[in-house]
Amino acid sequence: MTQPLVPTAALPSSDGRAPAPNRASGTRAPGKAPASKLLKSVQRPSRLWTVRAAISRRTYWVLALTGLITPLVLWAMLSAWGGMDSTFLPAPLQVLQKAWFWATENDLLGDAGISIYRVVTGFLLSAVIALPLGLLIGSYRSVQALLEPLTDFIRYMPAVAFIPLVMIWVGIDESAKIAIIFIGTFFQMVLMVAEDVRRVPAAQVEAAQTMGANRRELIEKVIFPSAKPALLDTLRITMGWAWTYLVVAELVAANSGLGYAILRAQRFLQTDTIFAGIIIIGLIGLITDQLFRWGHRRAFPWLYLKG
Prior knowledge:
By secondary structure, this protein is an all-alpha fold. The protein has twelve helices and no strands.
């Protein structure tokens, strides 16, 4: 009777050790998982720490609220247990009470309204002139050579240094305050607009020239439409700069406005009013910034498509 054949790989070796597994037969050593399962078992990094990875809307708002609330909590803890006099660091509740008193007794809405008017007017005047000028500087090297060095020179001059000249040239009425905001915003905006225009891909311009576009068509139908998303972002950023010049602008013979109220509170060491004014300006700026972002998403929805 013939005995069954035993594979040579299953026979013990001459030194008595167990035979190695036969790789060709597809068998594997016991206790070892296949490579595919090992790869799946490796923990993937969190999307929170993945570069440019999208996160859910809920996660975004949780993180945003955390970033806003944490400084308030630290402020409250420092004012309560930091051993500081409330004259120098008022508690958040004290500031809130001062803001309520300001709103109900001291015409907060009137101060906020006149400040918004000054900022928006100075900003719009800057935009009306800076947008076409920056478009020309970014499109033509000759205009760039003529105007960019002068703009670079002036933009480093502090706006507060122009206050005496503005008072002499313009006077001390509303136009002087708007002029200070204009000076502080305009020259920065011109250079940023020009830089946005220069970022338009040269391939688009060359393709339009190949198709016979003239200079006006290049600017109106190629360069300006391509730069519009970046230009709206530039307007959003420079609007923030306009608000930073508000207090400086309201140094000029003002008797109303948020900046004026902050400066008046400084004279009498009313730090709760100073904090309230700063926070109100910050809230107005935050709302304005979000409106710009909303407008950007509405005007250029294809930039926010996933995938």
